[in-house]
Amino acid sequence: MKNSRVLMILAILYFLLAGCGREDQILPHALYYLDGSQGKAQVWRLERDGVTTRQITFEESGVEDFAVSPRNGALALVSGNSLSVVDSEGRNRRLIAEAPRDASLKSYYRNTIASPAFSADGRTLAYGWNGVHLSDLATNRDIHALTNPEPESDDAQGYARGVYLPVAWSPEDSRLLITMSYYEGYQLAVLQPGMETAPVQLTPETAVCCQFSWTPDGKSILAATPFFTGTVPGLWRYDAQTGEQTLALPARDSAGYTHFYGWPYQSAAGELTFFYASLKEYPTSDAILFSLVRGNEKGANIQNLHAEEFSIRTALWSPDGAFVVIVGNWEGGEKKMGIVSPGKDEIKILIDDASLIDNLTWGP
Q1: In the chain, N or C terminus with fewer CB closer than 10 Å?
Q2: The whole model's pTM is what?
């Protein structure tokens, strides 16, 4: 009887401690990001407690870009114009691709390695190198799925008009969103690896920039332009099967205002939550103050969801859309990393000095 009581008490303590541990995990997954100046940036990880940070990489040339495997947290690192895969602690390096690159325009546009993207099962790594490559990490087979077309002219505008890069895999893992560049802005297409069909080209009325993402149901692709660039700002949705544009929120109105939209998230119910700014004159990017708003699936009936306005460097939604992690400043302060939840005015600060933080990415 005595032993039974002891076992019962131990069981209760175990569940209580386990519950406390879960309450300490304020993030749904570990959060990876780049921190540091150009040529010196490294990958860091913020643990689920929202407090503990750890530097994961120590690349001599710094990390230019990276991706995280949704399956096991492996990292694909672009550094010194080479692509390597390391484990979640930065060890066990495996070289995927490397290329010499000189100062010529041809070498820059044809030999630059960039934009790694893991499939959801972690088996395939897409990356850019004179087009789009697909590397099967289990078999070491590398497929050059798309090759950049020959430039229309031997200058930057000619080369830049023909560069293909991967963006993100679809939620069901069978399709890959890619960009097809212009000199300023992009067109988008959907590639189906393993299929002989040509990529489905999305049909914007003009080149788009700069944020592209799949909706959770995999049926649509959202594109948003929240910054002052050479392209017209706006928010668009495209049908991923047909390429048809099904939503276009206006960039300008008859009163002379310019509208900026960024970091959109579509819920399972179809509601769009995004950041929005309406300005009379074109500002610099740092001067744009965004409000967090929500509208219906057509972006109409906009409602403000937070009392603050934000100057945003980058942002990342939680997978369920319950909150968004922002790197930016508000109330004239220094750049910080914080959690903002729609409908709640408080801001949970994660990192006080986020002046050089970029490329937010969830781990598994």
Answers
A1: N
A2: 0.89
